[in-house]
Inverse folding.
């Protein structure tokens, strides 16, 4: 059973962010590979210790979900008018947040994943399993859509 989905991000001081990076993700499935490459290159520069693989896996799942469920896949529409997703990585001394912004207002809903032979449907289960916490919140103001985030605790550097 998944932990309850929480809205909002735990309190983190934006002024204390030690590193941040983001990239736009086009509305095509190749963007998952691009997000993985971006994440690996970014994390190679940051000291995230043993959380490297966990973070990369969760980013892949969040981006895949955004592209599959939130971003229109009609390439003619997507190339000209459809908003794309955006990946944000933010590192504090002992925490890292990866967040994926997409244009959908739909609530991310974990599927009941008792069928482990299914080829899809376990993305949020994996996010819940590998991240220390995760959730989502709608975008405020004039921005359309939502942000789905995952938080990772990092070991203090010595």
């Amino acid at each position: 059973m998944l932990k309850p989905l929480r809205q909002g991000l735990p309190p983190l001081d934006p002024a204390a962010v030690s590193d941040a990076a983001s990239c736009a993700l086009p509305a095509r499935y190749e963007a998952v590979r691009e997000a993985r490459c971006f994440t690996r290159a970014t994390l190679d520069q940051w000291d995230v210790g043993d959380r490297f693989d966990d973070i990369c896996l969760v980013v892949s799942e969040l981006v895949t979900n955004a592209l599959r469920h939130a971003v229109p896949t009609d390439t003619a529409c997507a190339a000209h008018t459809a908003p794309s997703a955006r990946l944000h990585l933010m590192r504090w001394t002992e925490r890292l947040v990866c967040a994926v912004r997409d244009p959908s207002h739909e609530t991310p809903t974990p599927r009941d994943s008792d069928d482990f032979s299914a080829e899809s449907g376990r993305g949020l289960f994996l996010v819940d399993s590998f991240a220390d916490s995760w959730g989502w919140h709608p975008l405020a103001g004039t921005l359309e859509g939502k942000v789905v985030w995952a938080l990772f605790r990092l070991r203090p550097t010595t």
Notes: Residues 36 and 136 are 21 Å apart (CA to CA). The beta strands are 6-7, 19-25, 85-91, 95-102, 133-138, 146-153. The longest strand covers residues 95-102. Residues 26-109+122-153 form a domain with the Heat Shock Protein 90 fold (CATH 3.30.565.10).
